[in-house]
Amino acid sequence: MNRALKILLPLAVLGVGAGVWLTAPSKVDAARFEALTGNADAGQTIFTAAGCASCHHASGSDNKLLLSGGQAFASAFGTFYAPNISPSDAGIGGWSVVDLANAVKQGVGKAGEHLYPAFPYTAYTKMQDQQVADLHAYMQTLPPSDTASQPHDVGFPFNIRRSLGGWKLLFFSDDYVMTDLPEGVTERGRDLVETLGHCAECHTPRNAIGGLDTSRWMAGAPNPSGRGEIPGLTPTQLDWSATDVAYYLESGFTPDYDSVGGHMAEVVENFSKLTPEDREAVAAYVKALPASD
């Protein structure tokens, strides 16, 4: 028994050490951002396309740029509350460009903690460094709020932040899903759909522990709130033309003269502020999706 313990104990220590190392938060290389100067005008477009205000604006406020947070997002793992991301001490007022880059590209908070993927950094990770710098410059121009962020209501074992390091090993990648762009699909369209617009976060089904099932990319998914389904965007589910898609993103009206509802109304509000070329680029990507089961 003593001999077995002498063998197993060091192995256990090594195993724990390897687990701690593998699940440690990974940060961006700060040197990449030293020479960058953010452009607030460009950052406003990124902010709009990324839908930052849709989740983080103050509940019940008409000011969509007051990013005091508080909106609740129910899921199978608990309820997540959008934090304050206004430029104040209660928000991200003390954050540098590198701090913001760690959050949006690595899912790591200013204190070095793993962030829950209810925040779609799994999509934002593909943002270019200059885009992050521009976004940071714009967000510093917004009104501050001293409202404290509400803690998430997440039970065991999902409240163990370190476990997210293991989740990231399995599901966190900065690779594009549509790697080879079909004719007519631009990098801008892919950037808007897969990165900034993070469309797959709602329109792609997930596995039992919340990882996106990229084999069923954009094929529709259960609503995380437990109410209803989020429709698929592949040709199997959506027979709209590219013109229909672009017009819907501008006006909120479907080809059947129905109107947008739910959280998608926020998405349309954001995309209606982009250029017609941007909406056409998104439509081209959607129409290039492969059929699904």
Automatic annotation (TrEMBL):
Gene Ontology molecular functions: electron transfer activity; heme binding; metal ion binding
Keyword Transmembrane helix found: no
Entry-linked InterPro entries: Cyt_c-like_dom, Cyt_c-like_dom_sf, Cytochrome_c-type_DH
Pfam families associated with the record: Cytochrom_C
Residues annotated as domain Cytochrome c: 38-143, 184-290
Keyword terms, alphabetized: Heme, Iron, Metal-binding
SUPFAM superfamilies the UniProt entry points to: Cytochrome c
PANTHER family: ALCOHOL DEHYDROGENASE CYTOCHROME C SUBUNIT (PTHR35008:SF8), BLL4482 PROTEIN-RELATED (PTHR35008)
Protein name, per record: Mono/diheme cytochrome c family protein
Protein source organism: Sagittula marina
Higher taxonomy: Bacteria, Pseudomonadati, Pseudomonadota, Alphaproteobacteria, Rhodobacterales
